[in-house]
Amino acid sequence: MITIALYITIAMVVLATVLNVYRLIKGPDAPDRVLALDTLYINAIALIVLLGITLGTRLYLESALLIAVMGFVGTVAMAKYLKRGSVID
């Protein structure tokens, strides 16, 4: 029963990832693209965690934490660039 739920959840997260990639490509302006990239990081983390649960290993959880930190730093840098025009002051 839990494996069926995992496969359904993986399929739904993959669908959300595809829709995020569409928004990233077709976004009307830069803030929409930054938001799509941020949610793409979140979907990648969800996929890695679900893969770790499916395979029964904790190694994937550490890589999900690394992607979370890098995604946060990237999103903050992009938002700061869009607001001020430079990342480093």
Describe the structure in your own words:
- It is a single chain.
- The chain has 89 residues and is mainly α.
- The protein has one domain (2-84).
- Helix content is 87%, strand content 0%.
- The chain contains three helices and no strands.
- The protein has helices at 2-26, 30-55, 59-84.
- The longest helix is centred in the middle third of the chain and has 26 residues, at 30-55.
- The radius of gyration is 15 Å and the shape is flat.
- The termini are far apart.
- The chain crosses the membrane at residues 6-22, 34-53, 59-82.
- InterPro entries: MrpF/PhaF-like (IPR007208).
- One of its GO terms (cellular component) is plasma membrane.
- Belongs to the CPA3 antiporters (TC 2.A.63) subunit F family.
- It is found in: Cell membrane.
State the helicity in percent bands.
Answer: over 70%
Quick one: overall form? flat
Number of strands: 0
Radius of gyration: 15 Å
Helical run tally = 3
Q: What is the terminal-to-terminal distance?
A: 53 Å
Q: Element order, helices and strands?
A: HHH
Low-confidence segments, given as residue ranges, are none
Strand content: under 5%
The biggest beta sheet is recorded as: none
Main location: membrane
Keywords: Antiport, Cell membrane, Ion transport, Membrane, Transmembrane, Transmembrane helix, Transport
Family: Belongs to the CPA3 antiporters (TC 2.A.63) subunit F family.
Pfam families: MrpF_PhaF (PF04066)
Write the layout of secondary structure elements.
Blueprint: H1 2-26, H2 30-55, H3 59-84
Helix pairs in contact: 1-2, 2-3
